[in-house]
Amino acid sequence: DIRNLAMDKVAANIQFPCRYQNAGCTDIFFYQDKPDHEEICEYRPYHCPCPGASCRWQGSLEQVMPHLRHAHTSITTLQGEDIVFLATDVTLPGAVDWVMMQSCFNEHFMLVLEKQDKQDGVHTFYAVVQLIGTRKQAEAFAYKLELNGPRRRLTWEATPRSIHDGIATAIEQSDCLVFDTNIALLFSENVLRTIKRTMMVA
Amino acid sequence: DIRNLAMDKVAANIQFPCRYQNAGCTDIFFYQDKPDHEEICEYRPYHCPCPGASCRWQGSLEQVMPHLRHAHTSITTLQGEDIVFLATDVTLPGAVDWVMMQSCFNEHFMLVLEKQDKQDGVHTFYAVVQLIGTRKQAEAFAYKLELNGPRRRLTWEATPRSIHDGIATAIEQSDCLVFDTNIALLFSENVLRTIKRTMMVA
Ligand SMILES: [Zn+2]
Ligand SMILES: [Zn+2]
Ligand SMILES: [Zn+2]
Ligand SMILES: [Zn+2]
Questions:
Q1: What are the CA-CA distances from residue B29 to residues B18, B38, B108, B165 (Å)?
Q2: pTM, whole model, 2 decimals?
Q3: Which of the residues A50, B66, B111, B150 has an alpha carbon 20 to 30 A from that of A133?
């Protein structure tokens, strides 16, 4: 009927504030554009970037580093653009995460190495880097992960993930450095494996 | 007894010719050293280096290239140290091999991309380079396989295999470039995937 049509027309022309207005977002959107924005809104709360579901912390981007320093004190931080990441006990059973922070270019990056057990006894390792920052900030960087063995080198170069997006999807889609136990052992001196990571402004 | 001991002593001091003497090997060995040598003897017949078990050809190293040219006419050969390998139809079901020859540095290299179907629907791709030559000749080279995607690059660098050793063990042990369907599709423009290969004298 005419009245509903008129109301629809009004609704289509009304702009609504982002649901994260209280957190600081001043953007307004037509109704149909709101969900897409809110998915990537920079004011959407950040989750704790540590892998695994054990920490339920949420907060603003500015609060992430203080949270990590206070609640995840076991994580080592290394300074510099080029670091060596040593993961020990790579043959431990079960799903295991190794985490390290790297500080360079006035930013903080989190390197995650995750091992998942597969049914056939061969385990899969996933290594990925995420920036403690927004997706836009992350796009200014590239990272390189290198596994070095005798006369062999495996390299993965990509844009760091933003912790706003997290790393679960990247691991699920193999959009990271992926290797199996054979390679992990081939590239290890006993139980050590080396990952060198280079940060470059893209 | 004394006699047997004396015979053992004699046997231990006798040198035997390599079993590939008729093929040209002039080396002689103490009995206990023979098997190790014969495993890597350069005069051991070469098998056809094409992946899969369909071709039963054997012959000398010098006969391998003529065999490939006459019996495997569908294999493309590209000249140069840096080539692009395009594999189409990467989502075809079943075990599939893509093969290409690369000629550079007066040598012939065979690039093999092999897809194996895994039980969980995710397929695994293995890419590896072998030299039509001896293991010693292969050690003078290094190769690099690169998969390039949007803001992503996966690289594998290693010494080429000799066709005397073959590639089956390398694939079995993941001692090559390994990636799954997700990466293959992520790095493809539609159904094409690019592998760039660089040969360098090590
Ligand atoms: Zn917003
Ligand atoms: Zn936390
Ligand atoms: Zn011999
Ligand atoms: Zn053949």
A1: 7, 10, 32, 22
A2: 0.82
A3: B150
Q: Kindly list the distances between the CA atom of residue B191 and the CA atoms of A60, A109, B84, B89, B91, in Å, as whole numbers in the listed order.
A: 41, 34, 15, 6, 8
Alpha helices, DSSP H only, in B87-146? 135-138
**pLDDT tens digits, one per residue of B172-190:** 988 999 988 888 877 764 3
Q: Compute the distance between CA of residue A161 and CA of residue A174 in angstroms, rounded to an integer.
A: 13
Spatial contact of A32 and A15, defined as CB atoms under 8 Å apart? no
Is B100:B79 a contact under the CB 8 Å cutoff? no
Mutate to test the interface with B, among A143, A157, A186 (most CBs of B within 10 A): A157
B155 neighbourhood in chain A, CB within 8 Å: 153-157
> What totals of helices (H) and strands (E) does chain B contain, helices first?
6, 14
> How many other C-beta atoms can be found within 10 angstroms of the C-beta atom of residue B53?
9
A 10 A CB-CB count for A39 gives: 9
Per-residue tokens: A53: 């579901």
Per DSSP, which regions of chain A are E strands?
15-17, 28-30, 46-47, 58-59, 76-79, 82-87, 96-104, 107-117, 123-131, 141-149, 152-158, 161-162, 177-180, 193-201
Contact call for residues B56 and B175 (beta carbons, < 8 A): no
Q: Is B6 exposed, middle or buried (0-12, 13-18, 19+ CB in 10 A)?
A: exposed
Report which bound ligand comes closest to the CA of A46.
2
ipTM: 0.80
